[in-house]
Specification:
With 878 residues, the chain is mainly alpha-helical. It is 64% helix and 4% strand. The chain contains 44 helices and 7 strands. The chain has a 5-stranded parallel β-sheet with strand order 2-3-4-1-5, with helices on both faces. It has a two-stranded antiparallel ribbon with strand order 6-7. Helix 27 packs antiparallel against helix 28. The radius of gyration is 33 Å and the shape is globular.
Length: 878
């Protein structure tokens, strides 16, 4: 099986057993006694033989796979990819559908669908897989733990998981114990007893200097396997140990490792120490390091490797080809302690730089940047950091970027332009926008200091301008400045920086629209669509066109562009763009009053939302909640709200958190008349957020609660809020949201018995809404719609008004006109004899969605099965 470049085969090999390995028979007996447990946890500090015990357990299973995790696997997407490709070693067909998701998605924050697909793949297996996850503590994050937790909510008969960790993972261990799902092995279990210590010494062919040597050695080490091994290898007589006061701390162990290294020549000793500066090593790195510390001597990698293995030093093979190795984590740390004493600063820096060169040759840019930093090679550290950040940006890999930034922050190495501006992008990701503005001057000064008169000056100034465009659009609401900075950014940025270019185009289009210059913006964007070849930028340009037409109220044009984006996405096999096309198509159909089509589109978006970025996931879920709210549907409401909450608080963005709280309060108010929701609405002061819409505005949710509060105080505050919103919108050319806000204002005026004001505003609204064909938002007026029937409308406005009155009249039940556009497409394909799977492939929707459409068709057409559906279709067409 050929692996993708970013998947390391070396992490999938079971560790090799040393010649003096002692099988822990009583632990194996316990493992077999708990063979029905689905989960095995081996948790203990470093050096207790956890990995070898896990490997010995795995060897007793018919089919086992191994994965050694690192801190680079924290992101759920990366973690899932490694899980799938590891199982593929035994079952090549496993998880192809999940890999497709990983290839398309920028991040996998929606765990449910991945878990369901994973379970389906496991259920198809004809054998039990025992999966060992080593070094789980390196990825002990909420998303990874949520995945593992969700997975074992299912009863999977053919999957067993062994977790090896230095500490307890944040998993429901107590709950699993109560359900008898888990078997645990801890420090007390892993400690060697005297018999095992004796067996180990005999296997190592050690000489006993005194009668009570085994007992004394076991007492000093407290059964700690690595401590025992270090003492034995160091060959330190027990008589020299102070039994009363001695304990094996890091300082003492380092001294014993010094004794151990005395058995090697000076050159060998230096090379053994030098290898500790890399987390893994091979022959090429060995030769690089040898050129640094032993230029005049030539020692072969094979010779020193075989000697380390023969002496049972803490070296671990990472593949079956004897090419890649690493030291045991504890031993590596002890060697580094010695190296920092024995090597000069210049030598240490040269060694780290050599490691960085090797990592760079393997395109491990983040790791190489850190190695150069540790070697005080700031120039190379920053240069390689620039490559790493570009990759992280374009892949929206914010987690890896934050991990890398933290290393630089920990070493107080932030006084460089590239780090200042990267930190600013992190501010956007985390929602810390106010802190962003405070640093603009500092960022600009550092760019001038580091890059003045250099080629990269324009590039980084372009990034700064894109950041300023973002800030002035969203927070200062200064559209002129936002436009100015977005144009400056586009003039300076190159196509290599897709992310910054996308941000610049978004706020170019957004500010032009707000300033009433949509026509010119659309012309320029269409020129770019025809000019740019990169699909990632082109799909963003289509997105901007959707936003502009949405805010301008050109709903029919929005629908057309969403359809075009849908076709483009299918042609380019871009599922992120496909998800966004359904999102905007749903919005268009919602405003046009096509409730069934809107529901279908939003459901399609939910099927694909894990392919798109977090901001679109968040507002897409918000749209689905509010759409369901307006249609009195509680289906999946709690699940949607839980996902909104997860994204909001994970992002730490005040905008997201405010909107989540507002939607949650409105939901509780609509379904339960929750007094706490009304208290929240009466006392909360919320700041408007651009762009404004039903789905992105917290104040409009607040006003909606107050507008139905049945209190004069509530109506009065609602009117104040709505007037403030309309004032805020006045200079921003947001037609759709202005109409929505005024519809709610009509309701409030009616409640306050300001009848004439309500009638005048409603008459204006009918004229404006008719020209944009916006219908469904009028539903909130309810019976008040009929109160305006005596207004003297012109003929066009009267027809539109009558459409609003009749739009909610129920049809009688068996007419084909009841079917939505998508249901009609499914109905016609049923007539042609296509199966569900074939229908899904034809319409680019899931089989689950097809089944839902067919259930709706049966209900609306009053039929019971496929045969009746085909018969009715023939009758209709004949």
């Amino acid at each position: 099986m050929k692996l993708p470049v970013h998947i390391l085969k070396t992490k999938m090999h079971l560790p090799q057993f040393p010649f003096n390995y002692i099988k822990r028979s009583y632990l194996h007996e316990r493992y077999e006694q708990h063979s029905t447990c689905k989960i095995v946890l081996i948790a203990a500090p470093s050096g207790y033989g956890k990995s070898l015990l896990g490997a010995s357990f795995a060897n007793t299973e018919n089919c086992s796979v191994w994965l050694t995790l690192t801190k680079h696997d924290k992101q759920l997407k990366t973690f899932i990819e490694y899980i799938i490709y590891t199982i593929k070693k035994e079952v090549p067909s496993f998880g192809d559908d999940i890999i497709e998701i990983c290839n398309q998605a920028l991040a996998l924050d929606d765990i449910d669908i991945v878990v369901q697909l994973f379970v389906k793949n496991l259920e198809r297996l004809n054998k039990t897989i025992c999966f060992v996850l080593d070094d789980y503590h390196t990825v002990n994050t909420k998303t990874v733990n949520d995945f593992i937790n969700e997975l074992f909510c299912y009863d999977i008969p053919n999957f067993k998981l062994i977790i090896i960790s230095r500490n307890d993972p944040s998993l429901p261990l107590l709950e699993w114990k109560m359900k008898q799902l888990i078997c645990e092995f801890r420090v007390n279990d892993l400690q060697f007893n005297e018999y095992e210590t004796d067996a180990f010494l005999k296997a190592s062919k050690a000489q006993y200097p005194q009668e009570n040597y085994v007992q004394s050695l076991n007492q000093i080490t407290e059964g700690w396997v690595s401590g025992l091994k270090i003492l034995q290898l160091a060959n330190v007589p027990i008589s020299k140990v102070d039994m009363q006061n001695h304990h094996l701390d890091s300082k003492v162990l380092t001294q014993y490792v010094v004794h151990l290294l005395n058995a090697y020549s000076v050159s060998e000793r230096k090379l053994i120490l030098a290898l500790s500066f890399s987390n893994e090593f091979n022959c090429d790195l060995f030769n690089e390091l040898q050129s640094v510390i032993a230029k005049n001597e030539k020692i072969s990698f094979t010779a020193i490797k075989q000697k380390l293995i023969k002496d049972s030093i803490f070296i671990i093979a990472l593949d079956n080809d004897d090419n890649h190795y690493r030291y045991h984590h504890l031993f590596q740390k002890l060697l580094q302690n010695i190296a920092k004493v024995e090597f000069s600063n210049e030598t240490i820096q040269a060694l780290y730089s050599a490691v960085g060169h090797m990592q760079l040759s393997k395109f491990e840019y983040g790791e190489a940047s850190v190695s150069y930093l540790k070697g005080n090679n700031i120039h190379m550290a920053l240069k390689v950091f620039g490559i790493a950040r570009s990759r992280y940006f374009n892949n929206s890999d914010w987690i890896s970027l934050e991990v890398l930034m933290n290393v630089f922050e920990d070493t107080n190495q932030l006084d460089y332009a590239i780090l200042f501006i990267t930190k600013a992008w992190s501010n956007i990701y985390s929602g810390d926008i106010l802190n962003l503005k405070e640093n603009f001057d500092k960022i600009e000064a550092s760019i001038k200091k580091d890059f003045q008169d250099k080629p990269d000056y324009s590039h980084y100034m372009g990034e700064l301008f894109a950041l300023k465009a973002y800030y002035y659009y969203n927070y200062d609401v200064d559209m002129h400045k936002s436009l100015d900075y977005s144009v400056k950014a586009l003039n300076l940025l190159t196509e290599n920086n897709c992310y910054a270019i996308g941000i610049a185009w978004v706020f170019y289009g957004g500010s032009m629209q707000a300033l009433g210059k949509s026509k010119k913006a659309v012309e320029n964007i269409n020129i770019q669509i025809n000019k740019i070849e990169q699909n990632c930028i082109k799909s963003n340009l289509y997105l901007i066109l959707c936003y502009i037409n949405w805010l301008d109220g050109n709903i029919l044009q929005l629908k057309n562009i969403a359809i075009y984006l849908n076709k483009f996405a299918k042609y380019a096999n871009n599922k992120e763009a496909l998800a966004n096309s359904y999102y905007f198509s749903g919005i268009a159909n919602y405003y046009l009053g096509n409730k069934d089509d809107a529901k279908d589109d939003f459901n399609e978006f939910l099927e694909l939302k894990h392919f798109t970025i977090i901001v679109h996931q968040f507002f897409g879920l918000a749209a689905m909640v509010l759409f369901s709210l307006k249609n009195d549907s509680k289906n999946h409401m709690d699940a949607f709200l839980n996902k909104l909450e997860l994204i909001a608080f994970k992002s730490k963005s005040k905008t997201y958190i405010d909107l989540y709280l507002a939607i949650s309060a409105r939901t509780k108010w609509v379904f339960n008349q929750d007094p706490a929701s009304l208290d929240w609405a009466m006392t909360t002061d919320l700041r408007p957020f651009i762009p404004m819409s039903d789905f992105t505005s917290a104040p409009i949710q607040q006003a909606s609660i107050l507008a139905t509060s049945n209190t004069i105080e509530g109506y009065t505050k609602a009117l104040e809020l709505l007037n403030d919103l309309l004032l805020f919108l006045k200079g921003n050319n947001n037609i759709v949201f202005t109409i929505n806000t005024n519809i709610l204002k009509v309701l409030v005026l009616s409640h306050l018995n300001r009848v004439e004001d309500a009638r005048l505003l409603f008459a204006e609204l009918i004229q404006t809404a008719r020209s944009f064909q916006i219908k469904l938002p009028f539903a909130i007026l309810g019976d008040y719609l009929y109160a305006f029937s005596d207004i003297m409308f012109n003929d066009s406005d009267l027809r539109f008004y009558k459409e609003l009155l009749s739009m909610y009249t129920e049809a009688d039940g068996t007419n084909i006109e009841l079917l939505s556009k998508r249901e009609l497409e499914v109905f016609r394909l049923i007539e042609q004899g296509l199966l569900n799977k074939q229908i899904g492939a034809t319409l680019y929707i899931s089989e689950k969605t097809v089944k839902r459409h067919i259930a709706n068709i049966y209900k609306k057409m009053n039929i019971k099965n496929r045969k009746q559906a085909v018969k009715m279709a023939h009758e209709i067409h004949n």
